[in-house]
Structure formats: C-alpha cells, structure tokens
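Order emerges. As here.
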Amino acid sequence: MFAPKDYLPLTPHILHEPFKHLFSPYAVSTVSACEPLVIPPARKQEPIMIRSTPPATGGFSYQTAFTQALEQAVQQAKERQGSGALVLLSFTNLAMIINGCGREAAEEALEKVMEEVEAKIGGADMVERIHRDQYGIILSHATSSQMYAVVHQIAKIIQNYGAATELGALHLTCEIGSVDFPGNADNAQDLLDRAYVALHSPHDTQVHRSYSEVKEEAAQSRQKLGLANYLRRAIRDNKLRLAYQPIISSKTGEIEHYEVLLRVISDDGKISSAGPLIPVAEEMGMIDMIDHFVLDMVVQELEEAPNLRLAMNVSNLTTENVHWLEQCRHLLRHRPEIASRLMIEITETAAQNDLRNTAYFVASLQELGCEVALDDFGAGYTSFRQLKSLSVDVVKIDGAYIRDLVDNMDSQFIVKTLVEFARNAGLSSIAECVENGEVAKVLMRLGVDYMQGYYFGKPQNFRSWLVHNNR
C-alpha cells in the first residue's frame, strides 16, 4: 500500500522546534506506528482547541466549526510564515459494513479507530467528522514531510484495526487526500476543494495522494472535459461514422469479415479515429451511448448487405451493462440470419475483472447466434483455463507479438503456442497488426487462421462490398 519512497525520512535538523522532541538526535528516523505522533502548536500562537465527534445520526459541521477552524489555521500560518496541512480521510467500505453488520457496528468501528488516530495526532489539531464516511484533520503546524509521516501512521492504524463481531474481525478500508497550506491555497474553501480533488483522484494502489501530486493534472482534467463535450456534440449532431478493416483468410486470401471501427467527423469535415475518445467516454459515463449507437449501425448494415459479416468491439463496461445486452436481444432474438454474421469482440481485461459475469455475457450472445472473440489475447494475464471457461469462438492475438515476428524467436514461439492452443480448443485465431508480407508468411507457416493489418487494408469509411454487389 505504501512504498518507502512515498515517505521522506524526518531528521532533527529539518524539523521545526516543536517537532524535535519526537525524534532521536542520534540517527535518521522514520515515524514508528507504535509511538504517538503529537504535533503541538507553536508556543506563541493561540492553538486551535476545537475537537468534535458528532453523534452517529449526523450533525456534521462541514460548513461551520471545521471551516472556521481551518480558516483560522491558514491565517495563523500566513502570519508566522509557517505551514500546515489539511487531510481528508474517507472510509471506503463503510456502506458494506452497514449493509452486512448494521449501522451500530459501523459507528462503533469508526469511533474506536478514530480514537486511536486522535491519540497519535495529539491535542492541538482538529479532528472532525464532516460527512458520514469522511473525517477532516487539520495539522496546523505541519510541514509537507511531517504531513506525510502523519498520514502514514493514520493509514497503518486503519490497516491494522480489526473489531470483533459475530462475523469475525471487522476491518476498515480508507483513502486519504491532503493539501498543504498556505502554499496551495490561502483560504479554507479552496483548501477543502483541493483536498477533495486529491481524495478523489485515481489512487491506483496508493492509499494517499496529496494535491501537490495531482495539481499538474488540472490541464488533463480540462482536456478530458473538452473531449467529452466534443464527443457529446458529435453524438448529438450525428457526426459518428463507421470505418471497416478487412480480416483475411490465411488459406484463401479472401475477406472473411470486416472489423468495425468508430470515426468522428470534426467541425471542419475531417474524419478521425474515435479511439482516443473511448477512455474519456468510459470515464465520463458516455460509453453506453456509443456502444448502443454502434450496435444499431452494425445491425442496419447487416440488414442491407445479406452476405456481409462484421465484427464490433465493446467496452469492458458494456460487458456488465444489462441494457446493452437487452438491446442485442431485441434486435437479434428472431433474426438468426443477422446474428450469425455478427461477431462481438471483448478484451482480456473484461474477463480478468469479472470472469463469471463475462462468461454469462459471452453465453448470452452465443445463444442469440453471434460469435464472440477475445481481443488482444496474450496482452494480459488470462490463463488458458480462464479462456476455456469463457467459451469464446475466436482469439485475436495481440499485435505486440506480431510486429517483430520475423526477427524475434520468442514472439514466434508465443504465437505458435497460442495458435496451437486455439486449434486444440476448437477456436479460430486472428493475428492483428500485420504490416508487411514477411510477417504474413511467418503467420501462415505458424498456422494462423486469419490476418488483419495495414498490409491487407487500412480502415476505410466507404463500404467496398456495395461496389462489388453493383458490378
């Protein structure tokens, strides 16, 4: 959870006077979770004496006592040209505890663990419950390094806490956001906003993120919002189009089917890939609209061209979307002649996130008559056993193994292994990213069933099968 590099060692010579008694004068020391970490106020400053633990039923004073105390701490820091920090502590599994053990058990666990936290922080700083699952902590005289040390101890206390219940030990999980002052903000409201941003920024495996670590991401946030608006306008103004890339049979050289790729028409009429917009669409809750749109367009195309076969990708989120699956049933339940010409591509990540749910998604599509392909196979950690559980029809070998196939014997070995496994499991194999004839020859020698890449054709916006049909 916490890597040693995330926390700076504290030495006596870098500490303000009130902190020196906490550390050995003889050696560099990191903070011990076993010793109280008391951060008293500067001797000549009036300390913030407010401490509040609201009743379990509510009474949170986010806009009153806590905000006033934070404003006071900021002004004191500016007057003495010192520093402080605001820490927001969010208990992420509180709802699960309330659902499983009841409100009283959850409140008792919070009360006890926060008693331990307050004992480590000391009597001069404010600890306040500001939301049902959040606490605010004001460290009115802490440097950035000292704030990190305090947060480290808080996290260890919560990680090590376990309350005895009828169901066994009850553990709490948390995320922490923090911001220094007055350098990052000079008033309470801005501090609360920036600590909130840090708290809700992607934590990956870290429990704690400070605003100093995420403020550089502000430009990225603005860019994501701009892209989301651009995508919404494209959907509203009907500026989404489909492009088609051929998949070639290794045995005959004929087009087996086309993969559908999404394109966007810009305001100046240029057509570009929507690929960079997909992560933004997923993050902003718009991927549902996109995958519904693409499914409608693909089914319409299959209706108009009775000999056409198409494959479309769906987001990992869509594999969990019952509404999208219901749309499939509505469009395809009584139309096997269309369903049999539609392939749905899912990613390894979907299988890794929830194998049981993904297996149900795959089986539901196959029941309608669709084929299902596992895209980017080999890029993740899907085992052969998991692949067998999914019962997909096709595996698409990740392009990372294809691009250097001619000169890389390891890639050749991996591709050969994947192809042989697929064949023995009764699955077809498709190699992506085939860029030249030399790679194509190696793939045919290794027994790949189908190939896809710029060597055979780039994604095109026009429907070439209509030209063939009109000849």
